[in-house]
Amino acid sequence: MSRAPKPLSLTTTQARQIWLHAQRLDERTPFGEGPQAVADTVAHLGYVQIDTINVIERCHHHILFSRIPSYRRADLRQAQSADKSVFEYWTHALSYIPAADFRFFRPAMREHRREGHKWYASVKPADTRKVMRLLRAGPLTIRDIEDDVLTEKEHLWQSRKPSKRALQLAFYTGVATISERQGMLKTYELMTRHFGWDKLPKPASNKDITAYLLDRALRSQGVVSLDSICHLDAPRKKAVAGMIATRVRRGELIPAAIEGAGKQEHWAQPAVLEEGGEGPSPDLVHILSPFDPLIIQRKRTNLIFGYNHLFEAYVPKAKRKLGYFALPVLVGEEIVAALDLKTDRQAKKLLMQKWTWVGQGKKTAGRKDLKRVIEEELHRFAQFQLAE
User: Which residue in 218, 122, 234 sits closest to 168, CA to CA?
Assistant: First the structure.
């Protein structure tokens, strides 16, 4: 029996540079511009999370803007509704996903169709028949359905409209897709008609899905752990661990020991470790969404960046430390501040609620230059917020 290879030691700086390169946050324009840049960004990251909070621009637009400086909201509409290069479905949250990856989500759709969905157990067959009749006639928004009798919510985020719940169930079962968004108003369309398919693609096997999740993480994270690969999907860990072990034996993956990670194991492809990362320019600034892939896995961000982000939108005001919707600020390869911003769309202003220095930003030496480059980026960020 061959002995397991000794893990390669990585400093947090090395791990940080590898991750920033994998996230394409080490350069200003990694994906070009226009709808194709949107498709390429989503394809590289694997998914872009969608969220409803809009004190500033919603996170799906924000995440794309962080990697596409010339990003326009119309580019995402083009990719989703015309080019159909991306579609919406559930990863660890509702997300934009490459249309080319559709088959990896078919087993979840089939399971919901076969067993129902726990969030929509109250959907009645009559409500499903009603929305399917309307959908077969053409694309549909919830505003097109005027004869609903409102019911009590079963949980906080649920609609009181039975037809909306039936549409959402059709979405999770793969019968319907979201063909367009105007703000958060969704237009539903039959999945096959939207994509021009006679029938849905064949579902991927469990083995293929395991490989897909591992490869997606390796591409977008560089150095991975079981937690980072299976974010909020613990049942997948056993299968992913087995595939990792196989690839390590083949020499396709190398164990890595990240400084400060303790017993948590990490792995990377040999070429990634050989290339390492040079790190971004020290004056490259990104004002990130709290739902950005670099931030959303809090423990990983804390390990590699030494920054523990606090999402305080649901924390009582008196107990907040960073603010209602604080945005981490990445300067070069360091997270140096958290800015609680709000867009006043009527007055056409970006409002600074609170500025908190963190990490290297707490040091007074060099803070003047840091503040200058952040304020320059804030100007660009404000233009994005107030555009269109």
Answer: 122
